[in-house]
Here is the input.
Amino acid sequence: MEKLIPLLIALAIFGFKSYQNYMKEQEAALKRKKVTSPNPTANKPQPATYKSTPQKTSVPTPQPFYSEKIKETNEIQRFKKEREEHRSALSKKVKLSNSPQKEHIIAEDFDLRKAVIMSVILDRPYK
Here is the structure.
């Protein structure tokens, strides 16, 4: 406990000196700021005034481009419609091809005995 008291006193003195130094630096920064710009509005340069007469210039009128965009959008809509018709036709073909007769034929072609023999040949218990 007796060794702790001098340590606490040293820490308190160090903290107080750091605080004093910080305050001193803040005051110095404030003085530097005041010296560099005493009054920013007083040194503002006045804009130059020029008297000019307006000149008439002819501006070419832009060509309308909306007709090209309309053609493009019509082509895009036509393409989307054709794509949708193609997809619907494909889905109808798939529905027709997935009949129960196909599934029955696939089931008849499968031979369990041959499948077991092939799996034993491929995965031999001894190597």
Residues 113 and 119 are 10 Å apart (CA to CA). The chain has a mean pLDDT of 78. The chain is about 70% helix and 0% strand.
